[in-house]
Each structure stands twice: as structure tokens, then as C-alpha cells.
Amino acid sequence: MTQTLDDQLVGAVEHDISTDQFPIKGWDHVRFYVGNAKQAAHYYSTAFGMTCVAYRGPEQGFREHAEYVLTSGGATFVFAGGVRADSAATQHYAKHGDGVIEVALEVPDVDANYKFAIANGAVGVEEPHDLTDEHGTVRIAAIRTYGETRHVLIDRSKYSGPHLPGFAARGPIVERTTGPKRYFQAVDHVVGNVELGKMDEWVQYYEKVMGFTKMAEFVGDDIATEYSALMSKVVASGTRKVKFPLNEPAISKKKSQIDEYLEFYESPGVQHIALATNDILASVDAMRANGVEFLDVPDSYYEDPELRARIGHVRCEVEELKKRKILVDRDEDGYLLQIFTKPVQDRPTVFFEMIERHGSLGFGKGNFKALFEAIEREQEQRGNL
Ligand SMILES: [Fe+2]
Description:
Elements: H1 5-9, E1 26-34, H2 37-46, E2 51-56, E3 65-72, E4 75-82, H3 88-96, E5 99-106, H4 110-119, E6 124-133, E7 136-144, E8 150-155, E9 168-169, E10 186-193, H5 199-210, E11 213-218, E12 229-236, E13 243-250, H6 257-265, E14 269-276, H7 280-289, H8 299-303, H9 305-311, H10 318-324, E15 327-331, E16 334-340, E17 351-358, H11 368-381
Parallel strand pairs: 1-4, 5-8, 10-13, 14-17
Antiparallel strand pairs: 1-5, 2-3, 2-9, 3-4, 6-7, 7-8, 10-14, 11-12, 12-13, 15-16, 16-17
Fe (ii) ion binds next to β10 and β14.
């Protein structure tokens, strides 16, 4: 398999998926249930530079939700809002606030993947079935993961429509005239927060049910600050295109950011989605100008001689990173630049990360402490520390 530019952006490795027990081509889409899909679609268009390409709702005879499909490069997001009090999205929103209901993966053979998953302990949500319209047929199934989150398995090789059967093509919500053409090109990783003591169970779940392998391990002291701590392990698909870090709270002096998430989301769920960009400086400038709020980083982070020595030479002056509060980390394979948004809804739950990889396959381990101290300052302001 030859590597595409997008593969390099997300740190994918050469790997033949036909040898996998649970082959995955890549991400298909991430679907949110939100309180107001029309406004969410506008926000992600203006603030994150996404482009609306499809829609379904009452106008298409779909009487449960209004759903907007937005893309940026190879990444697809769906924002679904209920149009009635008893719609699935309305019910989900009432409990969790805006959040991710589906992390959908593209697979070559839905039936084979589903069968393997169920035989290895997965709980089925939807058995494999066809969805058809004038653009062709999609084969689809779904299994449960942490909280109320699901993994949808999709084979869209016989489908040419704008998203899934039932969706109508539609144009962009806003006309963008400034900034980079795209703020990000692909989804890099999706992080889940699970209950205290459950991280290893979920790691094993992904190993057994989806044939994932452990990629990295960050435990205990690596990511503890004075007050809060968490434990995190990462599982990934064969190509490493699909990477799932899993966090659990660790015992600490005060409430950790994972505890805060679990309390306000009312269950385990997706904590953050990392978006791969090839120009984090330009993207962050544009996003900030469009009103996206990023976590603050103290100037001392950039002035620390230890950090300067550790990161060595990167593609821009450290001053440029400092100006934008972009973090940098280096490991044996290379380095990465990253920045985290503040939560993107009223509850202190889901947020996004922008990541620009230069060889590094890591997740910014060296930044965990600086990052968590920044999050704790925010938690303190919310009275949740
Ligand atoms: Fe991340």
C-alpha cells in the first residue's frame, strides 16, 4: 500500500489490512447529537472551516432529526438535532449535552467484521443491513463501546451519494473568503473517557473485539499534576490510521479533569477529537479569529530551558508557537505540534485538538503536565477542582 499525504499527516504506517482479523480502511465519520444542529453546523462551518455537503430532515421525510454533514479534507462530521421531544438526539442531549454518539469506521466487509466482533464479546446495536437509494447501497452495522457511544461499521464501496442513503446534497452554509482552504485534513485520533478502574477492560475490549494493538502507555507519574491525575493507554488499528486513547481518572488530591467530564457528561464518552493539519500556525490563526477558544499556556512553558533543549529544531521559531500557545513535543521518531480547544459546548466535556505531526507517532506525552495544569486553571474557575 502506498502512503498518501493524509496517511503521513496522521502517522499511519505501512500495513496490509487483508491480514487483519478486523480489517479497517479508516475513519468514516464522527456523528454528534447536539441541542441545535442548525446552529452547530453554522459554528463548525465558520469556526472550524468545515463545509456542509449533505442534509436530511423532515424535508426528506426523516421525521426524527435534522442532520447536517460537514467535511474538511478526508474528515466527515455529522451533527444531528432532534425535531421532537422524544427524538433520539433530544433524549441524548438532555442527559449528556452535545456529544459524540457514533464513531463510524469504513470496513471492507461489514458482515465479517460484525461477526468477528460479536463472537469476541461485542454487544450488537444494529445487525448488518442494507440502506439503498438512487445512488446505490451501503452495508451498515453497529456495535456498542464505552457509555452510550457506538462504533458504526460501513461499507460504502457500492455507493456514490453525498453521505448515506436518505441524505440530500446541499451547499456550504457560509462562503469563506479568508484563511487557509482547509483548517484540517483528517481525523487523527478520538479519545474516550471511561470509568475509574475500567481503562484496562476497554483496552482489552478493543484488542479482543477489534483486533487493535496497544500503541503507547502513559500511566501515573507521567501525567500527574499536584492535584489531578489520570491514566491513559492507546489502542490502534493495523495501519494506525484509527487510534483510540482511553483515559480513566486516577486517585488524586482533588477532582481530576476526567472526573469532571464523567460528572457533567453523566457517563463515559468521547473526550476529544484530534484533527490533523499540515499548517497548524495558519489554522490556529484563522480559528482564533473566528472565535475558537484555545487553552492558555503560560509563557514559562516556552522559556523553560529544558523544553528548549528537548525539542531541538522545529519548523518555526519557538516565538511563533508561544504567540499562539501551540505546544510541542519530541520523541524518538520526530516531533509534533499541538493545541487544545476549550470545551465546545456549555458543559465542560467534549473538546478538539489540532495536531501537526512531523514523524512523531505520539500524543504529546511531554505536554501532559503543562496541559493539565492549564485545564486545572479552567476547572478552578468553574468551581470544579
Ligand atoms: Fe489527543
